[in-house]
Amino acid sequence: MKILKRDKAYIIFILSLVIFFSCSKDKAVSDGKIDVETIFDNSVVKSLSDMGYSHEIIPLETKDSCLLPGNSHVVHVDKENVFISAGALIYRFGIDGSFKNTIGKVGSGPMEHKNIHSVSFNDREGKVFIYDGNKKMIVWDKNGNPIDEVTLEIGGHLPCIFNLENEFIGIGQTYDEKAGGTSILRFDGSGICMDRRIVSKAGCQASPSYFTMPLLRENVAGFCYYNPYNSNFQNISKEKIEDFFFLDFGKYAQDNEKMQDMDYRSANADGIVELWDFIVCDDICFLLFRRGKDLFAASVNLIDGGILFSSSIENPRKGGGIPLFDEEYGITIWPHYEKEGVLFSLCDIGGLSDKELNQWSTRTEGEQGISDNSNPCLVKLRREK
């Protein structure tokens, strides 16, 4: 039976509509906005392997001096080293997994800290900058030798301070009557505040809640910053601050003033959605939300808007995350750090046999398996173009 040209055109038109609507219904990114409602409404469960990520597994050396506690995470990578924040210290491993040294000293005296609120690096000079959350920046070299201590001169709450080309960039709340609010601050190497840009007047209070802590992630130009008060992502370099993407919460949006009321938060916990973590690698953005008592992870393509992953997960601080590959292995990870298109994370593979381990690990046949008392493995992920 012959099909007329007009029939062909009609069929092509109908197929085009079907393809258009089937592809557009789950688009989570458009016009510089990431749509949270669309992410939650479209469940997509894939492994990182199914998303196109190849992986390399590097076992970290295990001995008493470098046994990592729980909730450890990769904070920096250079050509030769991997730096892992664990407890109140930074652990330096070679890129091959060999242990090098620790960085930092716990205490309340000079060149000592009780907690690590943020850590940053100057690869060119081999410096490590540990910020203790109390306006004190401690400078070490990568071999674990102390160099200097800098006190940052500003009134307010500064949860995050990072080094950027021998200056310091801080995100926090300042209490000046004329310049109060959430601000991005720039300090010189001696701790003097040189510049301050207010990014939100909301939330200017003496005791900001943990849940409204700003998020920063290192990138090529400097840092990517998420402002929880206006749901905006911004790229911060030494020269400028540029808007990147906006997180549109839609029906999940909350009033900033109410969110500062802990009684309100407690009474409405099941309906509150907040961003807890994010990381951007090339065109892919990983997002970790807290939704009521649950954690919800998403991976979206910032170019075509597609959703690669959208599902509840176990807490990454307790080993939860996105499946690495086949679910039968039970290996889940959450990416910690990005460097030149490569994602870095840690995973525990203590439950795998030698045969299973050798199928996807850098270890060779016949090497001893990894015990439950060993360090986690370093995971390197690269998405095939």
What does this structure look like?
Helix content is 11%, strand content 42%. It is mostly beta strands. The strands form seven sheets. A six-stranded mixed sheet has the order 1-2-19-18-17-16. Strands 3-28-27-26 form a four-stranded antiparallel sheet, with no helix packed on it. A four-stranded antiparallel sheet has the order 4-5-6-7, with no helix packed on it. Strand 13 (167-174) and strand 14 (181-187) form a beta hairpin. The radius of gyration is 23 Å and the shape is globular.
Biggest sheet, open or closed, and with what strands and sense?
Answer: 6 strands, mixed
Specify Rg, calculated over alpha carbons.
Answer: 23 Å
**Secondary-structure class:** mainly beta
Gap between N and C termini = 43 Å
Number of helices: 5
Which parts are unreliable, with pLDDT below 50 for 5 consecutive residues or more? 12-24, 202-211, 360-371
Shape: globular
Average the pLDDT over all residues and give the rounded result: 81
Task: Estimate percent helicity.
Answer: 10-25%
DSSP strand content:
35-45%
Task: Give the strand order, joined by hyphens, for the main sheet.
Answer: 1-2-19-18-17-16
> Can you count the beta strands?
28
SSE blueprint and pairings:
Elements: H1 5-24, E1 29-30, E2 33-35, H2 36-41, E3 53-59, E4 73-77, E5 81-86, E6 89-94, E7 99-103, E8 118-122, E9 127-131, E10 136-141, E11 146-151, E12 156-164, E13 167-174, E14 181-187, E15 193-200, E16 215-218, E17 223-227, E18 232-236, E19 241-248, H3 256-259, H4 262-267, E20 273-281, E21 284-291, E22 294-301, E23 307-313, E24 322-323, E25 332-333, E26 337-339, E27 342-347, H5 354-360, E28 377-383
Parallel strand pairs: 2-19
Antiparallel strand pairs: 1-2, 3-28, 4-5, 5-6, 6-7, 8-9, 9-10, 10-11, 12-13, 13-14, 14-15, 16-17, 17-18, 18-19, 20-21, 21-22, 22-23, 24-25, 26-27, 27-28
